[in-house]
Structures are given as C-alpha cells and as structure tokens.
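note to self — DONT lose this again. spent like an hour looking for the file last time. sequence + predicted structure for the chain T wanted, 253 res
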Amino acid sequence: MECRNCNAKAVMANPSLCRKHFISYFEKKVLATIRTFCLFSKKDRICVAVSGGKDSMSLLFLLRKYFIHVSAAVVDEGIFGYREHTLSHVKKKCAEWNVSLHVVSFKEMTGKTLDEHMLLKEHPCTVCGKLRREMLNACVKDHDVLALGHNLDDEAQTVLMNLFACKDDLAKAQLPRSESRGQFARRVKPFCMMKEKEVMLYAVLNSLAPPFVECPYMRKSLRNDVRDALNEFEKDHPGTKVNVFARHLAIYG
C-alpha cells in the first residue's frame, strides 16, 4: 500500500500516508484543534500533565516543537510495579528535551501512597482522580494553562460515563477547553480530535512510548468496562466514537 501523497510505503491505511506525511497530517490536525477551540496562544505558559504513556509524551513532544513556554508535571501515585517505570521514562525524556519537570507525589502530599489508600478499602480511581486533579492544579500556579493528553477515544468514553451516571454538571464541563473555575486552572485537550490509534502511531514513529505497562487498578474502573463496550461498537459500527463526541460538542460546545 502506497502513500496517497507520494510513492513511499504507507504506515497507516485510513488515511493512506507514509511516515513523513502521517506526522505532518497529525501535527496539522492538532494545531488546527488548538486554533479552532482557542486553547492557548504562543505567549501562554503551558504545563503538560505527563504520565509517561503514549498520549502525554506525544503531546509534550509536539507542543515543545511549536510553542516556547512549555513545561511538564507528573504525579507519582505510589503504585508499586507501575509508576516507577513510567516516571523513569518521563525524567529521561524531559532531560533529553531540556523541559522543566515538576514531580509531586501522593506520599509527600497526603502521607500515603495510592497502594496504602487501598488498604483502607477506598476505591482506587475515585481517590486517584481527586488527588491528581488537586496536585496538578498546584503545579500550574505560575502557568496559564494545563494541557492534558486525552484523545478522542478517552473523550467518547467520558461522555458515556457521565451519561450513565447522570452527571450533567460534568458533561457540560467536558469540552476541549475548560475555563478556570475557583482554584482550578484552565484545562485544554489538544488531542481531543485524534483517535487513540493515531496517537499510538505518532508515538511509535517518534520513539516516544515506553514498553506498555497498564495501571493495576484499571480493571476495577467503570472506564475499563465502557472502553471495552465502545471498542466493540466501533468494530461493528465504524465512526461510533467520532459521532459520540461530535454530538456532545454540538450539545454543549
């Protein structure tokens, strides 16, 4: 299969593009998303929330390529056998790219790691989500915006999760750009129009993704069930994920 723009071998089927043209397509689409939703400007100070995975590392890589004031923040939840590997990857890449990195941990801020919170029979995703939001917000006090690596698949999943839980207030706030609210900084999602498989390919082509290590608490989450169900719908009815998020934006955007 050849690239639709040249005679080189295609690295992706739909659209059919070679390595060079896929990277160009991907970056142009992300930059268009930033402009369309007015996520931030060249002069804004951007803090990228990184985890070490394909999405956040790809976002940091791309933003530092096109914007000047870019730094990173990572939360160490204290998940044995998981976070130490991704944290090492984050530190290595930030040093390589000369990006300032702010590391905060559950242990330092709360006196307990996430693993220790689980000994109290607390739900892992509820505890983790709340603490991560608070800690990341503390990291961006000297920045204009917090950039998150959420892709289109993530956004479609969240739309359904909020619908199932009847959380209308959260649904209204789930947009590419969420304005500052109280103590929380403005949050943006430059990858919200990019499919997960596109982000994965971008990460692989640029040697950004570490060996895959899944959070051990993932299987206990509602998101895991919604992700699996949505993937099945997408397989039988291509375009489902795009349609779910597009309809959400049409209603709340």
